């Protein structure tokens, strides 16, 4: 059954804590990214774990293999259940990351091409493949290296799942349970569609954390993804 990850994109610890206190459903993953982790470190990760949520550290690690190895060990130590890293870091880096999480519950999720990158930018680097082809190649390398999942738009999931033979978790942001004004997510799909397309974890931020009644939105999303 697909899971819901809530992007805890607050900048103040108090706001994040107040929000988590108010959640009625503990069966959700809580995604902590730069905005809280760089500032508050284990104050926020311990809070998430102590409240009984699964912890998703979205730190997109990308460095030399040994440094990433130590970073992954740190995430295991902090009780993270999910951690992101850049597949662009290369096969060796990914393999060292997989080695570091051995015997733990941590699931490593690979990021491919950032949505902020364009084909023009790739060309300036001398890369002539399309973003889609590059993302598929990077996802293949990641899964081959032993990653547990890949972060990808739900619209890309069918292609990834049919091309990559080894099973992996497809983790999809860009989900909108309803229309949001002035939205910066361009390629959005509903929770129900995302799951139909093969997403295993959907990542939803603002439609929940900025809602008047987050618990109600969570209920609606859960209904859609458990149909
Ligand atoms: O608020 P919203 O639902 O757009 O939040 C989506 C979350 O997923 C954010 O935390 C964002 O950083 C993350 N994300 C994304 N697009 C990607 C990768 C990650 O929106 N390609």
Mean pLDDT across the residues is: 95
Quote the CATH topology. Answer: TIM Barrel
Oligomerization state of this entry? single chain
* CATH-scheme architecture: Alpha-Beta Barrel
Total domain units: 1
Helix/strand order, N-terminal first: EHEHHEHEHEHHEHEHEHH
Give the names of the bound compounds. Answer: cytidine-5'-monophosphate
- Count of separate DSSP helical elements: 11
The helix fraction, in percent, is 40-55%
Beta-strand share of residues: 15-25%
Distance between the termini: 9 Å
Structural class of the helices, strands and pairings? alpha/beta
Q: For this structure, what is the CATH homologous superfamily?
A: Aldolase class I
Question: Uncertain spans, ≥5 residues at pLDDT below 50?
Answer: none
**What is the makeup of the main sheet?**
8 strands, parallel, barrel
Which term fits the overall shape? globular
CATH top level label: Alpha Beta
* Rg: 17 Å
Strand elements, count: 8
Kindly report the spatial arrangement of strands forming the biggest sheet: 1-2-3-4-5-6-7-8
Characterization of the model:
By secondary structure, this protein is of the alpha/beta class. The protein has a single domain (3-225), classed as Aldolase class I (TIM Barrel, Alpha-Beta Barrel), CATH 3.20.20.70. The protein contains eleven helices and eight strands. Helix 9 (191-196) links the parallel strand 7 (169-172) and strand 8 (201-204). Helix 1 packs parallel to helix 3 and helix 4 runs parallel beside helix 5. It is globular and about 45 Å long. The model has no long low-confidence stretch (mean pLDDT 95). The chain binds cytidine-5'-monophosphate.
């Amino acid at each position: 059954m697909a899971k819901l990850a809530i992007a805890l994109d607050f900048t103040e610890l108090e706001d994040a804590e107040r929000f988590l206190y108010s959640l009625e459903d503990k069966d959700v993953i809580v995604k902590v990214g730069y905005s809280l982790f760089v500032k508050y470190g284990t104050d926020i990760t311990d809070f998430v774990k102590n409240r009984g949520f699964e912890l998703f550290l979205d730190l997109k690690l990308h460095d030399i293999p040994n440094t990433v190895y130590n970073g992954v060990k740190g995430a295991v130590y902090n009780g993270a259940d999910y951690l992101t890293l850049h597949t662009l870091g290369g096969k060796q880096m990914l393999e060292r990351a997989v080695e570091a999480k051995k015997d733990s519950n941590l699931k490593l999720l690979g990021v491919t091409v950032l949505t902020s990158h364009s084909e023009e930018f790739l060309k300036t680097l001398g890369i002539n493949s399309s973003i889609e082809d590059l993302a598929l190649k990077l996802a293949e390398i990641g899964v081959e290296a032993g990653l547990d999942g890949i972060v990808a738009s739900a619209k890309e999931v069918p292609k990834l799942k049919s091309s990559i033979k080894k099973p992996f978790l497809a983790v999809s942001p860009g989900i909108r349970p309803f229309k949001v004004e002035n939205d910066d997510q361009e390629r959005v799909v509903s929770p129900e569609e995302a799951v139909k397309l093969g997403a295993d974890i959907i990542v939803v931020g603002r439609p929940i954390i900025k809602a008047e009644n987050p618990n109600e939105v969570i209920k609606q999303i859960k209904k859609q993804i458990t149909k």
